[in-house]
């Protein structure tokens, strides 16, 4: 892949066919792009347990399945690689059913083991199933609208721990570990989304993410919301992966191709509609009656009829993105956005898109 730099901030990237390069980085089909700097990476987060406590990171790898955190001597954790499911229905469970799940932290102990912990509970350490064990022990859980996903059960100890913390009993919930198989959105329950958002691909899905492997928002968007709230809310209330320091609030709505640091490229594939999860305080697990959802809806409600047909009228905050070029990303990295050829002589729109 070749780059061309001019004026210190614009860069071009030549089109590539999907392949695995010699250095192991994944590259997908992308058009010829021209870049302009729009900000810097201000915060990075990943969530090893779906609906679990978010973890900050100063540097990570952007992979095709989402953020990966690799440390010597420790098990490699990926974004949303574990999920909780009901042991009778096999349906996945999140903070929507159990708000205090947001307090559960999952971290690596050594090369083979991870730990679950939460305030008021003794931690539990368990061994993550190895690859050789996966194929014979795989089970099928269901996510949104019956989407089937494969995982491997992590055993009785984390199951009992989660059940006790979330339900007060010793059974009912299990912990699943991702098989890292590609989910099939375009042929399954999500097909209707792909008809409205025609750049959404199967390759954009994360492991157990709701839709895509990355969610991005700008710090100015959160600042704009907090100006309207009596009690400001923290970034983690919105569970992003990438927070960018931009110029104006909600400018990210208009970004399509986004380059982070020297290499990683992601693409905005759809807005992120917000549900009652943003009413859960990430520090206490307590759910408020209305805010910040009520205020966000007052000025960021979805208005496009086609998008409402799949997303409802939920308010928008942030963008879902898929990976096109993998690479390492760290705090402070410059963030660039593609300027279409017909807009080369104009700046990227920074309009406050209060209504979508």
From TrEMBL:
<dbReference type="Pfam" id="PF03476">
    <property type="entry name" value="MOSC_N"/>
</dbReference>
<protein>
    <recommendedName>
        <fullName>MOSC domain-containing protein</fullName>
    </recommendedName>
</protein>
<dbReference type="GO" id="GO:0030170">
    <property type="term" value="F:pyridoxal phosphate binding"/>
</dbReference>
<dbReference type="GO" id="GO:0003824">
    <property type="term" value="F:catalytic activity"/>
</dbReference>
<dbReference type="InterPro" id="IPR005302">
    <property type="entry name" value="MoCF_Sase_C"/>
</dbReference>
<feature type="domain" description="MOSC">
    <location>
        <begin position="183"/>
        <end position="338"/>
    </location>
</feature>
<dbReference type="Pfam" id="PF03473">
    <property type="entry name" value="MOSC"/>
</dbReference>
<dbReference type="GO" id="GO:0030151">
    <property type="term" value="F:molybdenum ion binding"/>
</dbReference>
<dbReference type="InterPro" id="IPR011037">
    <property type="entry name" value="Pyrv_Knase-like_insert_dom_sf"/>
</dbReference>
<dbReference type="InterPro" id="IPR005303">
    <property type="entry name" value="MOCOS_middle"/>
</dbReference>
């Amino acid at each position: 892949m070749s780059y061309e730099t001019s004026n210190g901030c614009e860069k071009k990237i030549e089109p590539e066919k999907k392949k695995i390069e010699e250095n192991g980085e994944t590259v997908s089909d992308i058009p010829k792009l021209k870049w302009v700097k729009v900000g810097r990476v201000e915060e990075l987060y990943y969530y090893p347990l779906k609906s679990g406590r978010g973890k900050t990171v100063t540097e990570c790898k952007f992979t095709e399945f989402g953020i990966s955190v690799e440390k010597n001597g420790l098990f490699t954790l990926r974004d949303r690689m574990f999920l909780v499911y009901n042991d009778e229905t096999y349906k996945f469970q999140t903070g929507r059913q159990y708000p205090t799940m947001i307090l559960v932290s999952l971290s690596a102990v050594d090369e083979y083991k991870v730990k679950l912990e939460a305030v008021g509970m003794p931690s539990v350490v368990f061994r993550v199933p190895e690859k050789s064990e996966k194929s014979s022990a795989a089970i099928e859980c269901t996510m949104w609208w019956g989407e089937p996903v494969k995982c491997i059960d992590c055993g009785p100890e984390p199951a009992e721990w989660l059940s006790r913390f979330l339900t007060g009993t010793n059974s009912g919930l299990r912990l699943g570990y991702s098989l890292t198989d590609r989910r099939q959105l375009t042929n399954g329950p999500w097909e209707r989304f792909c008809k409205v958002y025609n750049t959404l691909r199967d390759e954009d899905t994360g492991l157990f993410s709701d839709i895509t492997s990355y969610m991005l928002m700008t710090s100015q968007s959160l600042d704009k919301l907090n100006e309207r709230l009596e009690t400001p809310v923290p970034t983690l209330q919105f569970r992003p992966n990438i927070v960018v320091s931009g110029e104006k609030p909600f400018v990210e709505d208009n970004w399509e191709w986004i380059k982070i640091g020297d290499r990683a490229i992601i693409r905005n594939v759809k807005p992120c509609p917000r549900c009652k999860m943003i009413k859960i305080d990430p520090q206490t697990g307590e759910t408020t009656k209305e805010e910040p959802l009520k205020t966000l809806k007052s000025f960021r409600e979805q208005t496009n009829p086609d998008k409402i047909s799949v997303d409802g009228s939920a308010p928008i905050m942030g963008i879902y993105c898929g990976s096109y070029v993998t690479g390492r990303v760290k705090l402070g990295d410059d963030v660039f956005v593609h300027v279409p050829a017909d807009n080369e002589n104009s700046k990227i729109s920074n309009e406050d898109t209060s209504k979508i």
